[in-house]
UniProtKB/TrEMBL annotation:
<feature type="domain" description="DNA ligase D polymerase">
    <location>
        <begin position="26"/>
        <end position="275"/>
    </location>
</feature>
<dbReference type="InterPro" id="IPR052171">
    <property type="entry name" value="NHEJ_LigD"/>
</dbReference>
<protein>
    <submittedName>
        <fullName>ATP-dependent DNA ligase</fullName>
    </submittedName>
</protein>
<dbReference type="Pfam" id="PF21686">
    <property type="entry name" value="LigD_Prim-Pol"/>
</dbReference>
<dbReference type="GO" id="GO:0016874">
    <property type="term" value="F:ligase activity"/>
</dbReference>
<dbReference type="InterPro" id="IPR014145">
    <property type="entry name" value="LigD_pol_dom"/>
</dbReference>
<keyword id="KW-0436">Ligase</keyword>
Length: 317
């Protein structure tokens, strides 16, 4: 395999190949973009077990947790036991530009770090709400609900930062201190979603089952524990190669996800780091928020039981 160029000691190859048939971007576009935002993106990725979405030629895109056997020795990794598969997973830790460029050369397009750090992947450093619009809704519907989240946070004495997901929704991150155990963080996330939906139940819902959402924006509270979320500044494998882009609350009404791509996002940054600029200091979760959350069933468990109940009813008809 021929080397097109070298950066930070990493051989970069086949830079003029298209990433995918419909991406509208080349591998060079990906590498150049990630290199340009490395100083902003690395603090978001550092010391967090990393899952990436890779797009190899001739293969369907796939999520990769375990680093391949040919990973260089200088790529820092961490082994974490996966109870579901009964094996240890060796995650990459993308702590430096060299590692980021190596991942880009491996055609790693999306970067999904854990919400916890390598010493405890299950202890989130942020409370996260993921807003998912119904299929036929435009971005403005998500923006309205994002402002409801902000109001619910304010009413609870909290604040957070917002970014486009790089797809059709938005992510809201609330940095938290290390006082609350993981179960309390998950409970607080459920409560914050419920408080958001209660502000206007005609447009927002916490219903985990899609057919129960009735055309409303889903306030997803399941990003807790060992979950991952697309990182700020991460490209997304969509047409045009959009990126997950941080915006100020005051600008949220004036943007569209397609405004920020691997070819346009660097200029849109204008030398700033909006994710760092907009992120508040870590906050303590209110006790009443945690207590409320512990009264709310875990969404996926509740949905599983509800699905079984509905299936049983259909069989009995």
């Amino acid at each position: 395999m021929s080397t097109d160029e070298q950066r930070a000691g990493v051989d970069l190859t086949n830079l003029d190949q298209e990433l995918t048939e419909n991406s509208g971007a080349t591998k060079r576009d990906l590498v150049d973009y990630l290199d340009a935002v490395a100083d902003r993106m690395l603090p978001v990725l550092a010391d967090r077990p990393l899952t990436v979405l890779r797009a190899l030629r001739g293969r369907a895109p796939f999520m990769q947790k375990n680093v391949p056997k040919y990973t260089p020795d200088w790529v820092r990794t961490v082994g974490i036991w996966a109870e579901a598969s009964k094996r240890e997973i060796h995650y990459a830790l993308c702590d430096d530009r060299r590692t980021l460029l190596w991942l880009a050369n491996q055609r790693a397009i999306e970067y999904h770090p854990a919400l916890g750090l390598s010493d405890n992947i299950y202890r989130p450093t942020h409370l996260v709400l993921d807003l998912d619009p119904p299929t036929d809704a435009d971005f403005s519907a998500v923006v309205v609900v994002a402002h409801l989240v902000r109001q619910a946070l304010t009413d609870s004495g909290l604040s957070g930062a917002v970014k486009t997901s790089g797809s059709r929704g938005v992510h809201i991150f609330v940095p938290i201190d290390d006082n609350a155990p993981v179960d309390d963080v998950a409970a607080a996330t459920r409560a914050m979603a419920a408080r958001t939906a209660a502000l206007d139940p005609s447009i927002a819902t916490t219903a985990f089952i899609v057919e129960d959402r009735a055309g409303k924006v889903f306030v997803d509270a399941t990003r807790a524990g060992g979950a991952t979320v697309a990182a700020a500044y991460s490209p997304r494998l969509r047409a045009g190669m959009p990126v997950s882009f941080p915006v100020s609350w005051s600008d949220l009404d004036r943007v569209q996800p397609a405004d920020f791509t691997v070819r346009t996002a660097v200029d849109a940054l204008a030398g700033r780091d909006p994710w760092a600029d907009e992120m508040p200091a870590p906050q303590r979760l209110p006790e009443d928020l945690i207590a409320q959350g512990h009264t709310i069933p875990v969404a996926m468990v509740a949905a599983m039981h509800e699905g079984k109940r509905r299936a049983r009813e259909r069989r009995e008809q």
